[in-house]
Amino acid sequence: MGARIALVTGATGGIGRAFAEQLLRDGDVDELWAVARTHEKLERLRDELGCRTVPLAADLATAEGLRAVERALEEARPTVAYLVNNAGAARMGAWDGFSVGEIERTVALNCTAVAALCRVCLPFMGRGSRILNVSSASAFQPTPYLALYAATKAFELSYSRALGAELAGSGATVCAVCPSWVDTDLLLREVNGRRVSFPGLVPPGKVAARALRDARRGRALSVFPLYAKYLHVAAKVVPQRLVMATWLRMLKRYGG
Fold this sequence. Notes:
alpha/beta
């Protein structure tokens, strides 16, 4: 095996960048493989984070992009100490606001790519290796007007839990990361002239730090902050129709 690496997808911004920075600070890996679509953003990331950052441009919503990652692994033969599946698509909207192409791309990136990258990285992982799949508190219940996103995150949560059970005894672990609202550029800040309030809003750096701590402790779930823990418990005890009704009432504040 070659270098000890962390492979982080969606690494050029938001939660992905926070993971990249944290992993490099921790000094637990020789290289940080940063995966994103845009070559120019990856080059800027390497300039900012240093020469231990290895840029890998790939569109993970395509078979070609996934194959590019697989080829890089086969050529370098690294030890994958961390796989952080963070790349994803998220947009709020009604069912008829999504084209078929956008639906296909969202499912490909949020679901197919997660499972595929676990598949291609696991042969290079061993005892002590960690998979962190960035899901969401939206995975805990159906969410109208976030229906597609929440459903894909529910897939990611379910897949992570099942894969972790399959890997029991191997020394490699899987942690599903389920934060509430994270303060990134993905958030819609204003609707109909009214500033949006996000309960439980948390900086991406805190999400990454907590997730890595939980993963290193072998936990199957990283639910953060406290608001996300509340949602997790509520989803288990409150009927889904009531959870959805509460969410819809909140949307009406913004003319939704």
